[in-house]
Amino acid sequence: MIGARSIAEPTIKDTIIHRMDPRAKILILISTVFVAVTLDNPETMLLLFLIILSGFALARMPAIKLKTLAILLTLLIWGTIYSQALFYSQLPRTVIFTIVSPDVPVLGWLTNGGLFVYEEGLHHGAIQGLRSASILSLGLLMCWTTDSRDMLNGLVGLKVPYSAAFMVVTAVRFLPIIITEVLTVVTVQRLRGFNPKRFGSGIVKTSLNILTPTLSNCVRRTGTLAVSIQSRAFRANPERTYLKKLKFSELDKALVAVCIFAAISIVLIKLLYNMYTSGIYYSADLRPVYALARGYL
């Protein structure tokens, strides 16, 4: 029963998302970036964000990565909404409540006329937060479900120069290593009696103790990597061969076609709508296009 169950159930890397061609994932990510940057409607942005989050369920992400994603999205969305609510500069602006009144002797002058929370800033920050969260979520999904060698092959398969592709993959690979280094340093500090959550001079000392070994380890790893790639003749043979041959499946082709078509269509519709609102170009035959852009995009 145990053997039959292990065969019947897919492993953590045997899902639809994991089996996708890395070139398809890269093209879908690029298309989604264009869509996310172009959209302004909050309902449509929320729908795009939920569709991207559904990919994590299909990929059967482990709990630790879902927790990491939740923390990053919370910090990103909260920080964007908070900053836009306080420093929204466009007009009109509706004040919800006052944090620092302009009549306060010192703080009123330092904040250049007071500090307020604006309703339009909250709305604008929510849209910007969803836009950034969608791009971040899809980027993490692609990195977490794609092996570094496959990602390198995918970039090279899309005619990206090998040196540039290698630098991109190396940067992505270094991120989890840096996070692991920081967690290790924090654990060592706790064993030595430091409290990273303590305010005052303790948190400053802890931050410096984290920064120094983390940077030194990064420099050491960078030097080791440089020696390693030079010893393997990094630039000797421009025509490289790869063990794994990439091949688009029918699902990959369909998803890439849908994403590219949606991205091009949305960008063109928004371009025509912006030309209409700016008074550059207007056509009565494009009224349905204007209505679609105004109501849903």
Automatic annotation (TrEMBL):
Q: Which domain of life is it from?
A: Archaea
Instruction: Please verify whether the record's keywords include Transmembrane helix.
Output: yes
Q: Give GO cellular component annotations, separated by semicolons.
A: plasma membrane
The yes or no answer to whether the keyword Transmembrane is present is yes
Q: Which Pfam families match?
A: CbiQ (PF02361)
Q: Where in the cell?
A: Membrane
Classify the main location: membrane
The protein in question is named Transmembrane component of general energizing module of ECF transporters
The organism named in the record is Methanosarcina siciliae HI350
**Which lineage is the organism of this entry classified under, starting from the top rank?**
Archaea, Methanobacteriati, Methanobacteriota, Stenosarchaea group, Methanomicrobia
